[in-house]
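Journal club prep — side note

Before the paper discussion, L.F. wants everyone to see what a predicted structure for a comparable chain looks like in token form. Sequence:
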Amino acid sequence: MISTNPTSRYLPHGPFFNELRKRVDAYFAASGRPANVTPPGMFLKTAVILSWWVGSWVLMVFVASNWWQSALACISLGLAMAGIGFSVQHDGGHTAYSKSKWVNQAMAFTLDLLGGSSYIWHWKHNVAHHANPNITGLDSDIDLRPLARMSPEQERRVGHRFQHLYIWGLYSFLAVKWHFYDDYLNLLKGRVGNQCFPFPKGWTLTKLVAGKLLFYTWAFVIPAFFLPVWEVVLCYVVWSVTLSLTLAVTFQLAHCVEGTQFPKLDLGTDAKMEWSVHQVVTSANFGLGNPLITWYVGGLNYQIEHHLFPRTCSYRLPEIAPIVQRLCAEQGIPYTINTSTVGAIASHARWMRELGQP
């Protein structure tokens, strides 16, 4: 097992994070709104997105009467599910949604309702990815080998020359892999990438199994009582592809774009970079001026701030972004921003093309 203790590879918190922490704490103290108090808008947003999900499912199963109505309902369902992942589950999984432990667990469990596993996600995302973003061998979010090369530290293959064209097709299968393959394989192996984790027991295992059963029930069993099986399968293809592309592309815009760094892991040398600085230089923000994007992706377009303060509610990340930007400018730390979402997608495509070239 490879340790994910940040202090084993990075310098401990130093001048950058100490000053940043002081400035952010001062901001929240002056605002009169503590960082650990969930804004009312977060609860309203949760209600809206969950209602969007349920409403889309009802339209797909009970209302749609022709192919184009079914297609629209499926696309809406996929977008709503992605919104739950961005704006509800993600905060809950980071214990950033609420000061209440059970509220955070409930919000994190929405991933299980979508067919994933909040338990495995914790190890894959919170432990492996957040401790080691963009480090080959430790961050499984950048590991699509041998099908694609996402880091300069990964081996290049001849077929990667065209990866900027076919990568979008690979992204389309993200949800299918979650639902039918990845979680089960990870449980059997007891690890995600190089990160080992204990087999779930007791209430944790019960939630994992219950989540899978609930997902298969609403996604396949109930619809099969009202729709032909072929139509249920076709609907699944449409909404799962919508979900997959939305999730995968959004996550890649936060780390795999031009300007972000991919440090080489070398445990045989002394650490040279402060852990918090590593979070900044391996992450990228996008579309900061678009309030609709910020609302929908749950502040994940403020990825740098999220990596520095993962337990801060996503609703508050835009408030601290100017503080982080100013300090990075003062200390000469690269701070990557793509001004628009479309521009970020183009940057990701160019980065993938560059990595595929000889």
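L.F.'s comment for the group: The radius of gyration is 20 Å. Keep this in mind when we get to the figures.
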